Amino acid sequence: MIRAQVTDRDALAARLPSELAMYLRAHNWTIGERSGSSVLWLKVVDGEEFEALQPQESTIRDYAARVRDLLNVLAVTEDRSELEVLSDISNVSMDVHTIRTFPPDNAPGMIGIEDGVRAFESVRNLVIAAAYVVSVEQPRAVQPARKSAEVLKLLRDVRIGPPSEGSFILSVHTPVPPRLSASQPTLFENDAAEPFERRVSLKLYDAVRAAHNAANDALVDPNGLDVFTAAVPAGVSANLCEALIGLGGEAGHPFELALRLAPSRPIGTRQLVPIRFRRDHLPVLASAAQEMRERVPEEGAVVAGNVVRLHREGAGTGEISIAGTIEGDDRLRRVWMNLTDEDYSIATLAHQEMSAVSVRGDLVRRGTRLYLTNPTAFRTSAGDD
C-alpha cells in the first residue's frame, strides 16, 4: 500500500507546538523527559516502545524538519499515511462534521454549481438550527429568523473545510476548547459543563439522527407528522428538515453525515455512527417541514418592505401584501396580512407615497403563501425614531 508522505515545509511549519502536544496526549503518548526546546514522548505499541521528539518552539530554524520527523514516527505507529496524520493534527481541537453527498452523473469530487451552492447554504442552516436549540430553553418546531448573539458568534468561528473526493464531501470544523485534566466532568456527568461549541456539535448530530428516525417512522405511522413534532425537543424543526433537503440537491440525491469529535476534548466511548439519508427520506422531510410551518407560526417575526397590494370591501379591515424581507433573512419574500382600519389607512398612504413599512407578527405558511397573523406595530419608515 502506498502511503503519502508530507514534504511541504510550509504545511509542516504551520502546525503549532500546542497542536502537536494535544495530539500526542489524546493518542495516549506519555512524556518521558524534557530537554531544551523539545519534549520526548513515549508509547508502547504491540510490545514495542516508540519515542517521538516534539519541538516546543516554532521559532527554531529546523522546526519544519522536526515536525517532519515526528510525523514519520506517528505514521508508523498508527499504520497510516503522513497526510492523514497531519490532517488530524490540524483538527485536533476541532469537532468535524463530514457531509458526503452522492450527486448523480458527476465525477468524484464534483457537483453541479447550483447543487453546490445549495449544499453550502444548507450546511450553514444546519449549524444555525442546532445552535438555536442549544441557546434556548424551549425549542420550536419553526425557529425564528432572528438569532441570538451567541449563535451569530459561533457562525463566525465555524469553518468550512475544502471539498474532497469520494463523491462530493463537505466538512464543517467547529473549534472547541481542550479538556485540560481528566478530572473535568464529561458530557454524561454534567451537560452544562461542556462548552457551547461542543453542545452544538452534538446537538447537530442528535437532531439529524432524530430527523432520520422520524422520516423512517413517518413512512409507516398513520399520523406521520406526530413523530416529527414529538422530536422537536431533540432539535427537529422545519428549519432543520429544509436544510437536510437542501443537501439532496435538485435531484434529491442521497447523502451521509458523520461526526468526529475533537481528540483534545474526549467525552468517553460514545459511538457516533454515520447517518445516511436515502432518496425516499427527502419527500417525507419536505412534507414535515411544510406541515410544521402551516401548523406552527414563527412568533415575533418582523417584516419590512413595500406595500404591493391592497384589498378590502367597504370600510373596516383590509388585506395587504408586502414585498420585502423578514428580519434575519435577506431573501425577498411576499407576505400577506389583514390589518385594522387604522393600519390599513397607513398602508394605503405608504403605497401611494412608495414608502417602506414594517410590521411585527406571527408568520405562518398556508399553501404557497406566507401570512402574518396578529400584526402589530405597523408603521412607515418615516415613523421610525
TrEMBL record:
This is Uncharacterized protein. It comes from Paractinoplanes durhamensis.
